[in-house]
């Protein structure tokens, strides 16, 4: 006989007693079913929470991917702009190179001995980058090309800088030469005697006059005709009171028959600076300035160095 299990159920004190009898096998089976059901429910609950977490993670991942895609698109746009800027910079460097050539032609400054072109020996300008053509498979190629062109432009900018440095140096040299070259009349008045042969007012014989005489009132200002250093200031024989200025480059000027000199030997003077006053000292027939220009110690015609043509044309010549 199979063993059975009886459950007695009391509803209340006045009711009947209810009995429920189960066989042991049915109880075990029922218990097994309940256990499996609980396991199933637990698994479903676990899967639910796992799925919820997965959905949350997927949502966060999608948001992260969306953000990264936006960032990638922004970077692509920046790369496009950078590529355009490289092309613009390259064209500007070429314009600067053309500008340098124009300056060299105008200033008559030859380029240095190297024949290297702007973009290298025998090289030509790299082709423009093409940022609108931006498929994914071209991305790395464009980046690499941009790096190459940036390196090339860096070298080109150094060459261009050196080119302008060379021009600046040459222009500075020319500026110093121009500033040291006599180019104006040293005094206002009348040109009473020019450079060349003339009849001497003292001997009445034909002799070489090695300067330019400017007749004007005593005390009139005498100005330096170029930048230089005073090498003599005082009495110099028949020239009377005189000033000698060394302008460098083998050029010097003399200002003679002065009434008074205003500088001492060693003074630095600038073009247009008053250095003396017109007088009648030394061998002279009247107040005037005797002006000489010497090149490597030899007197030359001062008119070659006078650029103030208007002032000269308005000066009256007694021997013209």
Description:
The structure is a single chain. The chain has 320 residues and is an alpha+beta fold. The chain has 3 domains: 4-75; 77-179; 190-313, Glucose Permease (Domain IIA). The protein is built from 3 helices and 14 strands. Strands 3, 6, 7, 8, 9, 10, 11, 12, 13 and 14 form a 10-stranded antiparallel beta sheet that branches. It is rod-shaped, with a radius of gyration of 52 Å. The N and C termini lie far apart (167 Å).
What key attributes describe this structure?
320 residues; alpha+beta; two-stranded antiparallel ribbon; 24% strand
Terminal CA distance reads 167 Å
- Mean pLDDT reading: 80
Helix content: 40-55%
Q: How would a textbook summarize the main sheet?
A: 10 strands, antiparallel
CATH class of the largest domain: Mainly Beta
CATH architecture of the largest domain: Distorted Sandwich
What's the CATH topology label of the largest domain? Glucose Permease (Domain IIA)
How many whole angstroms does the radius of gyration measure? 52 Å
Shape: rod-shaped
Number of helices: 3
* Total strands: 14
What is the chain-wise order of helices and strands? EEHHEEEEEEEEEEEEH
The tally of domains stands at 3
Alpha-beta classification: alpha+beta
Strand content: 15-25%
CATH superfamily of the largest domain: Glucose Permease (Domain IIA)
Unreliable parts = 309-320
SSE blueprint and pairings:
Layout: E1 4-10, E2 17-23, H1 24-107, H2 139-179, E3 190-193, E4 196-199, E5 206-209, E6 212-215, E7 221-223, E8 228-235, E9 241-248, E10 251-261, E11 268-269, E12 274-278, E13 288-295, E14 298-300, H3 309-313
Antiparallel strand pairs: 1-2, 3-6, 4-5, 6-13, 7-12, 8-9, 8-11, 9-10, 10-12, 10-13, 13-14
């Amino acid at each position: 006989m199979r063993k059975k299990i009886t459950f007695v159920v009391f509803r209340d004190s006045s009711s009947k007693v209810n009995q429920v009898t189960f066989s042991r096998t049915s109880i075990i089976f029922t218990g097994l079913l309940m256990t499996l059901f609980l396991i199933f429910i637990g698994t479903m609950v676990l899967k639910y929470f796992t799925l919820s977490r997965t959905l949350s993670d997927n949502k966060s991942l999608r948001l992260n991917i969306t953000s990264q895609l936006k960032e990638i698109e922004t970077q692509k746009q920046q790369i496009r702009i950078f590529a355009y800027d490289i092309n613009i910079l390259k064209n500007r460097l070429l314009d600067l190179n053309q500008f340098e050539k124009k300056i060299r032609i105008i200033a008559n400054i030859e380029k240095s001995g190297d024949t290297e072109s702007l973009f290298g020996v025998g090289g030509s300008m790299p082709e423009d980058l093409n940022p609108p053509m931006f498929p994914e498979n071209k991305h790395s190629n464009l980046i690499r090309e941009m790096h190459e062109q940036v390196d090339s432009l860096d070298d080109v900018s150094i060459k261009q800088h050196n080119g302008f440095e060379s021009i600046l140096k040459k222009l500075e040299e020319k500026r110093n030469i121009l500033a040291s070259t006599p180019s104006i009349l040293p005094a206002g008045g009348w040109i009473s005697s020019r450079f060349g042969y003339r009849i001497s007012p003292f001997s009445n014989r034909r002799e070489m006059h090695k300067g330019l005489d400017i007749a004007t009132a005593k005390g009139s200002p005498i100005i330096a005709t170029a930048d230089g250093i005073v090498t003599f200031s005082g009495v110099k024989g028949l020239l009377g009171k005189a000033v000698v200025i060394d302008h460098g480059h083998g050029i010097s000027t003399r200002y003679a028959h002065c009434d008074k000199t205003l500088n001492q030997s060693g003074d630095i003077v600038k073009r247009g600076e008053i250095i003396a006053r017109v007088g009648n000292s030394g061998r002279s027939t009247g107040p005037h300035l005797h002006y000489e220009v010497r090149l490597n110690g030899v007197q030359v015609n001062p008119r070659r160095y006078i650029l103030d043509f208007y002032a000269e044309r308005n000066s009256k010549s007694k021997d013209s």
